[in-house]
Amino acid sequence: MTTSFKYRADDKGVYRPYIPIRLHHGDKHIDVLALLDSGADTCFIPRGLGEYLGYDLTKEGDYSYGVNSRFRVLRTSITLNIKVDHRDYSIPIVSDLSIHTF
Fold it and tell me: Hey, which residues does 5 pair with through a beta bridge?
């Protein structure tokens, strides 16, 4: 199956492939636009979303490394819902919640 997504301009006017998703944890959920990165090794979720969804961000966590820095993350699982071609998919994923505030 091949699916394409429209590119959307971010706040700087740069067009990127954002897709609408719903994140679930416990009895909470939130609808957000997510940046689609087909080459990514992991998913990153901002600290504010993790707090909203009720994750305990006081745990020790681990480090994740970027191009020129490292930052604290909490490895966890979350359910992602995506709608493609009028079909809903529920996907459990492992993600890194940012403990660091950027």
Answer: none
Identify the CATH assignment for 12-98 out of 1.20.1090.10, 3.30.460.80, 1.10.3720.10, 2.40.70.10: 2.40.70.10
Task: Tell me the DSSP string of 76-88.
Answer: EEEEEEEEETTEE
What is the pTM (predicted TM-score) of this model?
0.70
Distance of CA 15 to the CA centre of its chain: 18
- Give the pLDDT confidence score for residue 57 in this predicted structure: 78
Question: pLDDT digits over 59-94, tens only?
Answer: 777 888 777 887 778 777 777 777 777 777 777 666
Query: Per-domain residue ranges for the chain?
Result: 12-98
Within its chain, how far is the Cα of 11 from the centroid? 18
